[in-house]
Amino acid sequence: MTHAIHPYYQQSDADADDDSALPTSLVWSTVTSGPARQFIDEWARLSRRPAVLRTVNSWSFLPRPVTDLDDLLTVCGFGTPFDDSEGDRVLWHITRLAAHDDLAARVCLHRIMPAVLSVARRRGRITQGGVHNAIGDAISTAWIVIREFPCDRRQTKIAANLVRDVEYYGFVRNQRLRRVPEIKIDTEEFDEIIDEPSNRTVDVELDDVLSLASELGVNERHIDLLQRLGTGRHGDDIAHDRGVSPRTIRNHRHNAVESVQNALIKNGLAKKL
């Protein structure tokens, strides 16, 4: 499993003597193979390389010089409050540079890596191929999303927007396309087709809100429950799957909705009704 720790984490004396104490890197993993392990190891090798740091510190938009790449992550908002506008602006500049700069793209990817892998684990439980394939898909999608991110149109909440795009293009969009069968029909049959109202906009909005809520730290069980309900699953069926009563699911649904609302309101993304 891949983890993120707060950049200002300090080990206690007890932790320092404990073999299981957290490492000092901001993003770390207990897995021994796979794309996540590869990217984290590459980051560790690059983090203090003099040539890399000279390049990074030549970026004129940085508010101060950085001592290593983890330090750069904190400058672009890793572990800071969601409303850290300065960090958000630095990340915007890095994302803009990432369109044609591999190192900048690598920084962006590491900045959102914990959230991307969280999406992959959640989606991997309900998609073909499982979590392992979902992680590979999420990372490759993230690279493309970063390279093609429309910085001129989207200039705030960069990390949340990147993660939301990764989830949509990596897992949501293709699933929707597969729901529509390809059928050959004659020209005259077009007259018999009845246009039905599409709920695609509602689906996209729900996915956007839940992806953002996940980035804001809403409990993954709340996110998972709302996603299942959003796909049309009945609460009684979910209760049966989880081995609880329908009333418990109704209570969980209420708590989940409240958690999402509170997270959005707290970060100025919604107004209290």
From TrEMBL:
Q: Name one GO biological process term.
A: regulation of DNA-templated transcription
Checking InterPro entries in the record gives:
Sig_transdc_resp-reg_C-effctor
Q: SUPFAM superfamilies in the record, alphabetically? A: C-terminal effector domain of the bipartite response regulators
GO molecular function: any one? DNA binding
Can you name this protein?
Unannotated protein
